[in-house]
């Protein structure tokens, strides 16, 4: 594949970095697609099409799991709560509240198309969410169960396995079991092992959840998660990043108490949690005792928490579960009216080892000690087409965090404005509010404005602008700094079955960058980084069973030294071309094939692309360097309850003799990965 496409890559760029054949490629692709016959049937929205709307590099594996579960067990539209409805990324808190209010006013919904009477729901939105909703749910089974087994691994052996630094097998394995009795008792267990780890249960979680309708009470034993307010006090490891769904990005949609069944190793709590309704009030009590990974110094004190989840080498194994966090907390919320919600959330925690990070200059305001506590208040009020939301919290250090915003949603349009202020000494490792990039709630002030507008049927416009500053230095950057980024996107249905998308994304920040200064020595320089990325995409669904998608993305990065007038600015470019084919056969077999060509000058001009993967897996690929990649994904249903899946990925780098770095480095320019999965359900 790489040799056959070499001529194309050689013509992708001229010496000045501009693509020579970009226009002919686009014209050829567009002409080919438009000449094919069209269909009146639209293909289903795949999860990766939702996920790729999010911020580059974001971790959205939890969303992939949520959508997969909702597709397997759709919500009963006549019983779904506001929290359950807003799990769908297309439904805002305001719209979820309006759907519940519409249901109360109308009575039982007999047909899913009755939702079109909610002014904010049009044909396109209903078509997207319909597969996740049911009007008449099936009769509850006496019991149900699901099992999932998955194994994956790279075919090339990395240095860690060749040298023995990784003592475990190169196979990554995953096993999950979920079960339920009727509609009121569910349970689950999960074990996972990364490549190089020795224990099959290197990471595991489990839960049993029971709802008691007569007492309006839910009890969860084992691993669980709690989402409240806007994420300043308690939240799960997952939160939307910035993307072309601006209202979704800035407004946290709390799901309350839920069992934790994710493979993300640094999230969740473990113990017991109880939520009960007392009239219009929801009362939640939490208790947790969870071992954590950390780096210890010679005196046994915690210098930093370790959140990668890898326990392969002796050094990594020494960090495994060496400190415990005991936590107790609760929430009192007024939540019977979907148009008005208010709550108080708090917790207190204790570590069994003292936390004392070194380097008091870089880490002057980080958490130190054994005890922490956080308390906050949140509010959500809907009035007509607007929803105001706010939350404020204070940690034991005295640091304060606050967010406030307003979401206005009218037929065909949404606008959201969001302000955030996080003190440099606010500490909460269980928070995940909206933030500039990482979700860390300290040392940041910012303002976000986003909007999306369905101009007419088939035309959708979205944009956002976010500006932020860090009043205190970060660990790697030695002074206060600021950043801004924005996005503009137009999505147009050209003819029936053909959708075009154009996107521009801009970001600017300051960072420490390694620079080669005369005479040939590396120095660290403060530089302003400006990054512009442009994407053009064309999707064509000639029939329900066939979908084609072509994409061209171009990145342009400029690094300008700050305070170093004798150093020239540095420019780099990146280009990515991809073409994807999805074929579905009688709802039993789906094949997906994608080819990617990429060419970037360096890591700065890298380009991300989400990939379809096995159910429950998220792959957000980073492409840097020059080469080609392709994958084949096959999903098949065997009988009524068995699903098989396999994916093979191959990437060839023209400009490398090795792939990866450190102990993960493999010899040669080729990298191949094979994954297989089986799902069995009853």
End-to-end Cα distance, whole Å, is 42 Å
Radius of gyration: 25 Å
Low-confidence stretches: 13-24, 33-43
Strand content: over 45%
Largest sheet: 24 strands, antiparallel, barrel
The class by helix and strand makeup works out as: mainly beta
Dominant shape: globular
How many distinct helices? 10
In short:
With 682 residues, this protein is mainly beta.
Question: What labels would you give this structure?
Answer:
about 675 residues, single chain, globular, 10 helices, mainly beta, 33 strands, 24-stranded antiparallel β-barrel, two-stranded parallel sheet
Q: What would you note in describing this structure?
A:
The structure is a single chain. β15 (369-383) and β16 form a beta hairpin. The two termini are 42 Å apart. This protein is mainly beta and 682 residues long. It is globular. The strands form 5 sheets. It has a 24-stranded antiparallel β-barrel. Strands 1-2 form a two-stranded parallel sheet. The protein has 10 helices and 33 strands.
Topology readout:
Layout: H1 6-10, H2 22-35, H3 47-51, H4 61-72, E1 75-76, H5 82-85, H6 93-106, H7 123-129, E2 133-134, E3 143-154, H8 159-162, E4 172-181, E5 185-193, E6 203-212, E7 217-227, H9 246-250, E8 256-259, E9 269-278, E10 281-292, E11 294-296, E12 302-305, H10 314-317, E13 323-334, E14 340-355, E15 369-383, E16 386-395, E17 400-410, E18 413-422, E19 444-456, E20 459-470, E21 481-495, E22 498-517, E23 521-543, E24 546-561, E25 570-585, E26 589-600, E27 607-611, E28 619-623, E29 626-638, E30 642-653, E31 658-659, E32 666-667, E33 670-681
